[in-house]
Amino acid sequence: MVRVLFVCLGNICRSPMAEGIFSHLVEDAGLNNQFKIDSCGTSGFHSGEPADHRMQQTAQAHGVRLLSKSRALVASDFTDFDYILPMDSHNHEDILIAQKRVSGSTAVVKKMLDFDDQNQGGDVPDPYYGGADGFEQVYQMLWRSSHKLLSHLRQAHKL
Ligand code: 4NP
User: Fold this and answer.
1) Which atom of ligand 1 is the closest one to the Cα of 12?
2) Tell me: the pLDDT tens digits for 103-148?
3) What residues act catalytically?
4) Best substitution site from 7, 8, 42, 124 to test ligand 1's pocket, by max atoms within 8 Å of Cβ?
5) H or E element, residue 108
6) Nearest to residue 12, comparing CAs of 70, 85, 58?
7) Which residues pair with 41 in a beta bridge?
8) Ligand 1 near 74 CB (within 6 A)
9) What predicted TM-score, i.e. pTM, was given to this entire model?
10) Which of 14, 96, 100, 132 is the most buried (most CB within 10 A)?
11) How confident is the model at residue 45 (pLDDT cuts 50, 70, 90)?
């Protein structure tokens, strides 16, 4: 079982989309039993809320369903997951600081766009305060990087 956690700030836009796309690809590949997939936020501002309706509309237009409810990152995530994928540099820094406080965490922390050829090492921009274009752009970045992430994990874990 490979355990993958996507992380952004509010867990209502970017990381629910990453979770939705990655779950969709895993299901298509018939690998549901091999993966545990979740998402969370470095903040709990929106705890309990479903994904932002604009992100849900964008996902739906591409045949992806967003089913997650927002929750904040907790200490046990660092031992309950093998891969933690922050959406931007702020999330990345916050996660590395939090991981240092947890003993025995072997989780690999890697920015999501390390898996995107077109934006390698860059940030998935926060679409929350912007226009509709931002949501589509986030979808495209996460679609590309999710494919690469899945290939990488299939190779690494011989799936
Ligand atoms: P997310 O977007 O981190 O992609 O879920 C945000 C959603 C809400 C807020 C910030 C970012 N907010 O400050 O409320």
Assistant:
1) 5
2) 999 999 999 999 999 998 999 999 999 998 999 999 999 999 999 9
3) 8, 14, 126
4) 8
5) strand 108-109
6) 70
7) 8, 72
8) no
9) 0.98
10) 14
11) very high
